[in-house]
Amino acid sequence: MVRRLVALLAVLVLAGALAPPGQAAGRAQHRPVIFVHGFSGSGGQFDSQARRLTSNGYRGDLIEAHEYDSLFQAGTREQVYAGLDARIDRLLARSGADRVDLLAHSLGTGLMQEYLRSSPERAAKVAHYVNLDGAPSADQPGGVPTLAVWGEGPSTRRIGGARNVYFPGQAHTEVVTSKETFAEFFAFFTGRAPRTTEIVEEHGTIALSGRAVLFPSNVGAEGARLEVYEVDPRTGERRTRRPLAVRTIGADGSWGPIGARPRAHYEFALVWSQTSVHHLYFQPFRRSDRLVRLLTSRPGEGLAAQMQTGDRHANLVINRQREWWGDQGAAGDSLRINGQEVLNAANAPRAKRTIGIFAFDAGADQVTDLTAPLQPFFGQPFLTGMDVHVPAERPVTVTARPRGGNGEVDVLTVPGLPSSGHRMSLQFDDHLG
């Protein structure tokens, strides 16, 4: 009990230190930063960059993601812009800054170019704009100083009058999350190079917070109950019967802050009912994180409902905010489930830009067949599906060897929960080291 009280006090102190200080004397050292994602994206794609920013002295409470439904079924473009107006005004009031710095990716770049051109008043509140592997332009949107970062693809893409940087070896989402991109936009924002491009580990208790949202609409997973457990990294089993924290998810999906340890492994369980639980596992968090995204769907809805379920096999969704390359040989990635290599040229070619993998026993025949990808998953942008038999009731070890990592291996071991009542998502880091 004493240890719990001490941990809770540490989280409250930390949350207070990072919280809106209208409150804190003086003006923020850096301008607020806002990230706008692309199609089927979320704030999770800016998670590593946000922690790189705080590793370089930025305030965590002044880094936000502006999320929306990229199918525009849960809101119009005009509502996206109105929400961004309110977010900018709130961050300016909180920070005392003159303007914000804005980044956008893919579909989000088209939105933000339109937004900045929509009125001089909007453009006047943005100091710098970063266009990440998205729409080209003849000029800088709204006259705002612009940095354009481009990944693999034609080098003819550019924004007129802007600084255009090309990383031909980086894929579409990788451009958002890479340390090379970070170094470029940090210098663009501040006029100097960052002290580090690494995510620097914090010591002591860290604070985790974020949103639980329906994929891909980013609507809050209202009605689910979040339970957080520390787990044994060797088995994925919970270390305690009682959760470290419990939160009821409201309409906006927000939760936290929750106290954690930098090197520990955690399970985030979204309990929809007694017979439907979504378990999400992450690699250890190195420092406080406000952009933890728990991507889910209501039972019986979304792509997860297309995965065959049963008592004898486990279903996995494996995510990374850096594309999985299964057709590049030694220059690509390796992903093994219980020792079985699952990436290949059929289900994860470089051109597919896969960041999300749905793995389950198609046909419930206890046979793995990787000769062809599964539909409808492979037909969706950035996703793939594969027929992998993962036996239930025994630990499941998933091992990733990221390209360019000099043999580095990332491992997540989780319980083999039967898919008849459990979904499991594994989130691998997009950064090396």
From TrEMBL:
Residues annotated as domain AF-1763-like C-terminal: 319-430
Can you give the residue ranges of the AFL C-terminal domain? 205-299
What are the AB hydrolase-1 domain coordinates in residue numbering? 32-128
Keywords recorded for this protein, A-Z: Signal
Pfam families for this protein: Abhydrolase_1, AF_1763-like_C, Lipase_C
GO MF entry, a single one: catalytic activity
Q: What does UniProt give as the signal peptide span?
A: 1-24
Regions annotated as coiled coil: none
Protein name per Swiss-Prot or TrEMBL: Pimeloyl-ACP methyl ester carboxylesterase
Recorded source organism is Thermomonospora cellulosilytica
Phylogenetic lineage: Bacteria, Bacillati, Actinomycetota, Actinomycetes, Streptosporangiales
